[in-house]
Amino acid sequence: MSSRDFVYSKFAEFYNNPSSFIPAPTSFEHREFAYLMFKERFMVRHKRFESIQVFQSVLTRNVPSDVYHSCAYYEQPDLEMDKKGWIGSDLVFDIDADHIPTKCGKIHDEWLCQKCEFNGKGITPEQCPLCGGDRFSVKTWLCDLCLESTRVETAKLIDMLTKDFGFATNEMHVFFSGHRGYHVHVEDEAVRSLDALSRKEIVDYVTGLGLSVLNKTSKEKFGKGRKRVATAKKFKLHNYGWNRRLKIGMTKLLSTATVEDLKNLELRNNNLFKNKTVILRRAIEEGRWDSIPGVSVATWLKLAEQVKNLESANIDTVVTTDIHRLIRMNGTLHGKTGLLKMEFPAHQLDDFDPLTQAIAFKKGTTKVFVSNTPEFRLGGATWGPYKNVNVVLPTAAAVMLILKGRAEVAN
Amino acid sequence: MSIDSTGFTKGELAKYPFLKETARYLSPLDLQIEDLVSPDMHQILDRAMERVTLAITDLTIRPLSSEQGKYFLKDLQKEILSFPVAIMLVSATGNSFIKKRYALAEAKQATCLLALESKMLILKVALDFSWKIALTSSDDVFDFILYFSDFLQNASHLHDAKWKLVNSTLSEGNVYLNKRNVVRLLQEEIKRRIERRFSNVSIDRYPSEISVLAEKLKTLAAERIEQAETDFPKIVVQEAFPPCINALYDGASKNHHLSHMGRFALTTFLVNIGMSVDSVTELFVSFSDYNERLTRYQVEHIAGERGSGTKYACPQCSILQTHNVCKNRDDLCKYIYHPLRYYQNKSKTALQDQLKNSKNTQ
Ligand code: SF4
Ligand SMILES: [Zn+2]
Ligand SMILES: [Zn+2]
User: Is residue B269 in contact with ligand 1, taking CB distance under 6 Å?
Assistant: First the structure.
């Protein structure tokens, strides 16, 4: 059996198994559905189904590698885009290790220049160091540190959605994406009709883009022309929105950071560390920012900038602003891992372990020839590292290695 | 004064005729389009005409001194009636400039008046738009709390940094605002409601007298538009490209991979400054191994020659910033909020420079 056929048979088993539960998204009849055909690598789009049962029978028959539905609601989801009749769209966030710096440095990813075949490990460079080409084929991997980094970003996002945007935790749906990250969907009536521009404002809020306490200059009129001048404006923060976040972030940073930590953040003013107790009380709590000896407006601005970087959440900006976006369907398999996209309660973010809980293939083992893989954890056990060896692995691990291009079924 | 969140006085309706209550107030009169040209309605038609004319010429709807104009201080009912009539007049022109301008003038006028009103009346007007809004307790430094989605629908169209959500006083879903801010946001909402009303008017035949007036308004508008003509130069002035577009252009010419948003920005920019589909396609293909057929298809789509038939607008700076396409901002960037504005400004000076230089060398 070829490796592809093997994985296909496992996906088919999953979609044929009546106990594979695929929850129906809300407003089912207004959603567009789409799926990528496993063998043909062809995307079927603009589908509408009467019920989840009907859709499930389609999945059983077709066995796709990836299944999606629209974040949007349409009058007629099965027509072409211009004619669908957009009613509204969920507010969706995607946090993916692809888009953020992770603690592992993605040392496990392998890239190959398509032009000259030069290859390397880690973050894919913008240009090939050998030939300057910029098209690469990339073999990604997911490790605990990737997941940890995305989890931290997701936690910051959820904190903003609850405290600043006022959503109750049960109004937010939090998912493991099935690969290297998390999705958060908000389906509240109030956000459905928001246009792309409003969603962009939400993205800017979450990422801290355009925060103006950080502006060192202000517009002022001088004679005929407008000029920008540096102003030694008083630094101050109020108790709402990002201003509040900055204060909390400053407190957190200053009360735990060492001199070294601050140096690493380019905060070299020693007074920040020496006077931290005074700063915490007089400046942050009482708002007397100008009363700290040796700490100028410029230093406050620098501190605020660093805190903003620490406290903002790194999301994929395009996903949230696109009001026609397709998103992976909850309860279906990810074609790059064989793991499930899976919902869990927002408050369990810290405890949910994708690498044991989002496993779809729980039975059986398979012998595979592994070309190259780092040590990895899956289903409560640790495997590898392997290099050019035959090993017998649980189905979930075998499927993942094959989909990641790191193993073949051994004959 | 009793706190009634729906009832407005006749005087208030005359000031804010776009309120839903106006329709309820007028419906017993059952005004028909034919009635407009009857002699006793003439005063109303005159005032309606004045509303639109002033909107086109001065972006207001009230003459500066009320004595000179036909503004009905005493006959409030006539003043109220002149509003729906003005809407019909504007619809009869079928002219999008007049529609936009009239809606803006009405909205600006209304907010000037609203600024002088009590918080309670402002609240009532906001509730007429179904805003989720409430007064704060009297000792609060802010006057209102407004649910963030209502805030965004209006504030996202305003360009000053202070209107960005990231700089707002957001807390638990609400933005804390003072009276002046709420009135400014209402202006956007009022403008949109009036613009929407034009698309709801469904009259296929106007009495000839109305058509004559509509023609007059169109002539007036045409003069205005000519005055405000701000076209792009007929030739492409590459030296005037904004930094973001330069970076994309450069990337494309080196066959680098562009993000979806980057490619979209570059294509819409080129199409919008007047480059033809042929030239844009040629450009992309000349750069690199872009597939000609596919590229042409995409460019045609963006230029509105395929699909929905609408030409896609080039995204404004704030959108390009969100998606990390804004690169190498320069001084001019501080004064514009749209790459096309940048181009418009800079191409003027660039062309003048060229002219100067060529004179010098001759
Ligand atoms: S500010 Fe606007 S015009 Fe300037 S580089 Fe950024 S996106 Fe381009
Ligand atoms: Zn290379
Ligand atoms: Zn990793």
Answer: no
In angstroms, rounded to a whole number, what is the distance separating the alpha carbons of residues A240 and A235?
16
Cis peptide leading into residue B28 (ω within 30°): no
> What tokens were used for B318?
């704030």
CB B183 within 8 A of CB B111: yes
CATH architecture of the domain A212-311 equals Orthogonal Bundle (1.10)
Which CATH number describes the domain made up of A361-411? Answer: 3.40.5.50
Ligand closest to the CA atom of residue B262: 1
**Domains located in chain B, CATH noted:** 10-227 (1.20.930), 238-361 (no CATH)
**pLDDT in single tens digits along all 362 residues of chain B:** 334 445 899 889 999 999 998 888 887 777 777 777 777 788 888 889 999 999 998 888 886 555 545 566 678 888 899 999 999 999 999 898 999 999 999 999 999 999 999 999 999 999 999 999 999 987 888 999 999 999 999 999 998 889 999 999 999 999 999 999 999 999 999 999 999 998 877 777 888 888 899 999 999 988 877 655 556 777 888 889 999 999 999 888 877 778 889 989 999 999 988 888 888 888 888 776 667 777 888 888 888 887 767 788 899 999 999 999 999 999 999 888 999 999 988 888 777 777 676 655 54
Give the chain A residue nearest B163 (alpha carbons): A201
Quote the pTM value.
0.88
Instruction: State yes or no: ipTM above 0.85.
Output: yes
Q: Do B171 and A241 touch (CB under 8 A)?
A: yes
- Please classify residue B352 by burial: count the beta carbons closer than 10 Å to its beta carbon, then call 0-12 exposed, 13-18 middle and 19+ buried: exposed
Q: Please tell me the distance in Å from B31's CA to the nearest CA on chain A.
A: 33
